[in-house]
Amino acid sequence: MSPHPTSADPDLDHDVIIVGAGFAGLYMLHKLRELGFSARVLDAASGVGGTWFWNRYPGARCDVQSFDYSYSFSEDLQQEWTWSERYATQPEILRYIEHVAERFDLNRDIQLGSMVEAVTFDEVHTRWSVGLEGGETLVCRYVVMATGCLSVPKRPSFVGLDSFEGESYVSGEWPHHDVDLTGKRVGVIGTGSTGIQLTTTIAKDAGELLLFHRTPNFSLPAQNRPLDEHFTREMKAGYDQRRKEARTTTRGYPVPPILSGSSALEVGAEQRREVYEAVWSNGGPVFTSSFADLLVSQEANDTAAGFVQSKIRAIVDDPATADALTSFDHPLGTRRPCVDTGYYETFNRPNVSLVDLRDDPIIEITPAGIRTSERSFDLDVIVFALGFDAMTGALLRMDITGEGGVKLRDRWSDGPSAYLGLTMAGFPNLFTITGPGSPSVLTNMVMAIEQHVEWLADLLEHAQREGVHRIEADDTAEKAWTQHVVDISDATLFPRANSWWTGANIPGKPRVFMPYIGGLGTFQQVLTDVKDRGYTGLALS
Ligand code: NA7
Fold it and tell me: Which of 114, 172, 179, 190 could form a disulfide with 42 if both were Cys (CB 3.0 to 4.6 A apart)?
C-alpha cells in the first residue's frame, strides 16, 4: 500500500508524464511509484537508455568511471552489478540500464516509440496535455522532462550532402546493424569526444581513415583497464561511503588524493611537472583539477596546456600533424576535455591521416567524397560526428506552451532561463531534470540526475500532502538564479571557449553559458536550503 495515493482525478490519464527513458526518466518513474503517484514514461526510441540507446557508434564509451557513473539509490543494485572496465563501453552501459528497468519492474510504465511533439498547459484545469506524433494525447497533472542534455545530434548540412554515393552515418543515430568498415576508405568529420572515440576504434579496421579536423580539442589519456575482482571487492566494500562523499564533491565523484589543490603558480616548475605527470598517469578528465586555479587563471592554465602539448608532440611522429593537433584556441578544460585510449598514437598508423580544415574548410560533399577549398577526397564512407544541440535542443524540439499561450521557444529566444535548472516561470507543474542552470554536464550526470529526481520527488510529495495543485517558479527568483549562473561562470575561463556548453557549436543559438559551474556539492546545499525554507522561489497554490 503506497503512503500517498494518487490524485485519482478521473480527467487525468496519469499524475505525471515523464518524457525520456534514459537514466533520468527511469529513476524518476521508480521514485514516483514509491510515493504512490501514477506515472508514465514516453520515449521516441524502441528501447530504454536515452543517450546510451542512440549513441552506439564504434568506440562509444563513458568518460566518467563506470563505478561512479551508475545509480547510487539502491545499495543492493550497486552491490549486485559488476562493471568490467574502469570506463564502460556503450553496450555495457545500455545492458546496465536495461537491467535496472527489469530489476525494478519499470518497463510496464514505459511507452516506447512515442515521440512527444506538443506539450500544452491547460490553465483552467491546471493540467498538461502531451501530444504524441501520430495523434495520441495524454493528460496529466505534472510533466517531467527527462530529455537529456546530449540527445539531439547536430545533423550535417553540407552542400551536396545527398549527392554522396557511398555510405554515410551520423554518430548519434548509428544503425543497429553491424557496419563493416573493413578495408574501406573512411572519412570522419568532427574531433570532439565522439570523433576521437570513433577514430581510435575504426582505424583498426578501415583501409584508410581520414580525420577532418577543424578545432583541436585537448584529449587526456583514460588509462582504462579491466577491473579485477580484488579492486571491485574493495570498491564495493566502501561503496556507500564513496557515494556519500561523491554528493559533496564538485564533480559528482571523488578525485584521487594526488591532486594538489593549491595554485599551479605557487609551486616550482619541477613540482608542478611531477603533479601533472602523476595525474596524467592516473588518467581521466580529473587532469583539469590538478591545481585549484587552472580554470580561473590563464597563466596557471598555460602551464597545464603546455604540459599536454609536450605530451602530444612526444607521441605524434609527423610534425605537421602534431602542429595541427596542438594549435589550441581555448584554455585547457574550457571545452569538455576528451578522454581517449591511444588517440594521438593513432596518427602514427600508416592508414590514418589528419585533414586540417582550419585554412582549408569543407566546401561540399560530392558524389565521390568530400571537397575542401583546395583538395578532393574520394571516400567509401563518411561519418559525421558533429556534436549535439546540447542542453536545450531536446526541450525546444517540442512545442511547449505554458500559461497564456507563451511558447518556451519564445521565452528562451535569448537563451535559457530556469530556476535551479528545474522549472520555469509561466510553465507551472513542468520540470526539467538536469536542465540549463544546474550542474548537469559539468558533473557525473547520474549523480546530478539522482539529486534532481530526489529533490523533485520530495517537492511533489509535499504538494500532495499539502493539497497543492500548482507549483511554479517565481519570475524574480528564476531571473536571479539565471544571472547567478552567468556571473559565476564569468569569473572563470569557461566562457572564453566556443563550446557546446555555451551553445556556440550551433549556428544561431544564443550564446549563454548554460550549466551551473558551482559544483554538485554546492548545488546540493542550495537545493537543501530552498527546501528547508519552505521552497523559496516557488509559488505553491
Ligand atoms: P563536440 O564535442 O561538439 O564535437 C563536435 C565536433 O564536430 C567538433 O570537432 C566540431 O568542430 C566538429 N564540427 C561540427 N560541425 C562541423 C562542420 N560543419 N565542419 C567541420 N567540423 C565540424 O561533440 P561530441 O559528440 O564529439 O562530444 C559531445 C560530448 O559527448 C562530449 O563533450 C562528451 O561529454 C560526450 P569545431 O570544434 O566546431 O570546429
Answer: 114
Q: Are residues 316 and 380 in the same domain?
A: yes
- Whether residue 438 sits in one domain with residue 334: no
CA distance 80 to 21: 22
Residue at which a domain ends, from 336, 357, 384: 384
**Separation CA 211–CA 50 (nearest Å):** 28
CA–centroid distance, 388 to ligand 1, in Å, is 8
Ligand 1 atom with the smallest distance to the CA of 153 is: 25
Q: Is 215's C-beta closer than 6 angstroms to any atom of ligand 1?
A: yes
**Inter-CA distances, 13 with 124, 229, 368, 437, 464, Å:** 17, 47, 53, 31, 17
Distance 386 CA to ligand 1 centre (A): 4
Nearest atom, ligand 1, residue 336 CA: 32
Structural domain tally of the chain? Answer: 2
Q: What are 335-365's pLDDT values in tens digits?
A: 999 999 999 999 999 999 999 999 999 999 9
Grid cell for residue 523: 548545488
The answer to whether 380 and 185 have CB atoms below 8 angstroms apart is: yes
Q: What pLDDT is stored for residue 365 in this prediction?
A: 98
* Residue 157 to residues 374, 471, 506, 507, Cα–Cα distance (Å): 20, 41, 12, 11
pLDDT digits (tens, 9 = 90+) for 142-174: 999 999 999 999 999 999 999 999 999 999 999
pLDDT category at 257 given cuts 50, 70, 90 is confident
- Indicate whether 108 and 181 sit together in one domain: no
- pTM for the complete prediction? 0.97
Nearest of 191, 153, 187 to residue 389 by alpha carbon = 153
Compute the C-alpha angle 438/98/70, nearest 5°.
40
The Cα-based distances of 164 to 16, 199, 379 in angstroms read 45, 21, 9
Residue nearest to ligand 1 atom 29, measured at CA: 193
3-state secondary structure 68-125: CCCCCCCHHHHHHCCCCECCCEHHHHHHHHHHHHHHCCCHHHEECCCCEEEEEEECCC
> Nearest Cα to 218, choosing from 325, 123, 301?
325
E strands present in 373-438: 376-378, 381-384, 399-401, 430-432
Which band of pLDDT confidence, cut at 50, 70 and 90, is reported for residue 429?
very high
Domain enclosing residue 183, as ranges: 161-238+249-384
173 in the same domain as 75: no
DSSP state of 61: B
114 and 207 part of one domain:
no
Residue 195 and residue 189 in contact, taking contact as beta carbons nearer than 8 Å: yes
